[in-house]
Design goal:
Elements lengths: L3 H8 L12 E7 L4 E9 L6 E9 L2 H14 L4 H5 L3 H7 L8 H19 L2
Antiparallel strand pairs: 1-2, 2-3
Length: 122
């Protein structure tokens, strides 16, 4: 059902955890399936680059894998570049999510956008 890459990111996530004193926190949730995601970001104030990113996710294997992947894709990018990451990018990098799990890739991009929008409105 899941690709090998999904299972790797689910069983051994590199970015799981919380950043103490993050610059911004993004959140997203899907009430239909119960997935909840919190992203913690550290931002270089001069360059706008995401220098640190971690997540805490309550959800299925696909939600956890997608959370880890959005962190991998966003780290080192400017916030402007990170805004261009799509749910298709997340799904493709994971080796394609099953159709019933695409919403997990959408959820993680929503959380990233939430964080960036909050930071930009400060």
């Amino acid at each position: 059902m899941y690709s090998k890459k999904v299972m790797e990111h689910f069983t051994k996530p590199k970015y799981f955890g919380k950043i103490n004193n993050p610059d911004i926190v993004g959140r997203a949730g899907n009430p239909r399936c119960g997935d909840l995601l919190t992203l913690y970001l550290k931002i270089d104030k001069k360059t706008g680059e995401i220098t640190g990113i971690k997540f805490e996710t309550l959800g299925c294997a696909a939600a956890i894998a997608a959370s880890d992947m959005i962190c991998e894709l966003a780290k080192g990018k400017t916030m402007e570049q990170a805004l261009n990451i799509t749910f298709q990018d997340v799904s493709s990098e994971l080796g394609t999510l099953p159709p019933l799990k695409i919403h997990c890739a959408q959820l993680v991009t929503e959380a990233l956008r939430d964080a960036i929008n909050k930071f930009n409105s400060k």
